[in-house]
Amino acid sequence: MKAAIYRGPEDLSVETVASPEVGPHEAKMRVHACATCGTDAKIFHHGHPRLEPPQIIGHEIAGEIIEVGDQVHGLAIGDRVQVIAAVPCGECWACKAGRMGICINQTSMGYQYPGGFAEEMIIPHEVLTVDGVNHIPDHVSYDEASVTEPLACALNAQSLVNVGPGDTVLVMGAGPIGCLHVRLARAAGAAKVFLADINGGRLELSQNVVHADRAVDMSAEDLGQIMVDETDGIGPSVIITAAPSGAAQEQALEIVAPGGRVSFFGGLPKDKPMISVDSNVVHYRELIIAGANGSSPAQNREALGLIASGAVPVADLITHRLPLDQVREAIAAVTSGEAIKVVIRPGDRS
Ligand SMILES: [Zn+2]
Ligand SMILES: [Zn+2]
Question: Quick one: residue 80, left, alpha or beta (phi over 0 = left, psi -120 to 50 = alpha)?
C-alpha cells in the first residue's frame, strides 16, 4: 500500500510499504478521507516530542472497515467509521474523572500508532477499548466525517468555557479551527459571533463561508474598539484564541468582558510560550482562563452527531481534496492560509 512516511523535519514522502497485518484485538480500515491540520504542518516543519520517526502521520480519519480481528465485537466489514485521534487510557485518575483530554497516559493516532495518510490503517486495540470508533451515518460523506475530530476539539474548548445562549463570542484566528468555533458557537445559541485575524486574505476566505456577525481585519482595524461598539460597551463574554499567538492571548485578556471567559485553544510555539498578563485585570474583573487540549471519544461522537444533524455544517469548509501523493501540497495549503480545510483521500485508487 501507499503511505506518507514522516522521517524528520521537512522529510515526508509517499512510499510503498507492506499492508499492515490485523491482530485479534484490532481492525483494519481503508482510509477514504484524512484531513490535514495545523498540527501536521507543525510536525512536518519541526517534529513533535511525542512522535518518534519514522511514522505514518495523519489523525483526522474516516474510512471503511475491511478486516476485523476475531476478538473484536461491534465492527463489521463494510462499516463506515470515524476514528478518534487522541487516545485516552480510560484507567488513570483523569480518565476516571471524565477528563479524558488530560489523560496522563494519552497516546495518539499518527504519533504512537501509524496514522491516516495511508491507503490502509490499523485501528489499534487501545482505540477500540475506549469506544474510539464511530459509525458514520449514510448521508454523511467520508470527507465531512474526517472533520469530526477537529470539531470535537472545538467542542471540548467551548464546553470548558460554557458557550451558550446569549453569549457574545469572539474567535481570534480565521483558520479551519476558527471557522469550526464560529459555527459551534452559533449552534450553542450565542447571540453574536465575531471572527478576527491578522491575515486579511484568510479572514475574507473564511468569512465568505461562515458569515460571522462581524469580521475584523486586525492588521487594519482596531479590534478592541470594534468589540466595545458591537457589545454595548461591555466586550465579548467569551474569547477563543485559535491561533499560535501570544499577542492574541494577551489582547483577549484585555478586551474580554468583566466576568468573561477566555479559551486558549491554540498552543504557542514551544520556543515562545510566555505571555505577559496584568494579573490584576484577571483578579478585579473575575476573568476565567481555560486551556483546551484534544477531545474525548464521547466528544467525537457528539461532534459527528452535530455534523450529521446539520447543526454544524462542514462540507463547505472543505476547499481542497487531494490524492495521497500530494500530501506535501496539502500541508503547504494549510500553512499558507489559501485553503480552509484540506482533505487527503488515500483510499481513492488513481
Ligand atoms: Zn488535527
Ligand atoms: Zn487516562
Answer: beta
